[in-house]
Amino acid sequence: MSRLRLFNLLVLAAASVLLSGCTTTDPLAVSRQAMLANIKSEAPGSYFIGRRYYKVDYKFWGWVRKPGESWSTAKMVMLNENQKFAPDRELGKLGSDNNYEYKLFGSFSGEMVYEPASNGFYPELVLKGTELISVSPGNIYRGVGATDPKRRVIIQPY
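Above: the chain sequence. Below: its structure as tokens.
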């Protein structure tokens, strides 16, 4: 076997060993896995996790789930703010917290509230307190434009 041929075989073998450890990873998949791990580590308690879902034309507040549960179980809610204003309303800047994530304290009243723009009924959450978790949480939507306040689209989290 010639030296050149032997050299080429060695280079090819070395390259295949080095490249076999390389894999392409989807950054969204990695981010989603991290988010799911965070959800699993949430402490149980008498609070909810809420994601503000501001839309110019709609009056609902956003998606709410129990701690430790996936976003696919979240419910779109209407807030009863008789005891506590939502954070954006408290600041006088409606929708300024679009896609922020919060701990929400309160309870469901058992009532369903009609929202005319979506022609839908949503459970009423009587808000008693909030705690900001993140101003830039991971993506929970598959659809394009989910967090665009001007798009008249309601996309369920996954």
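The chain has a mean pLDDT of 88.
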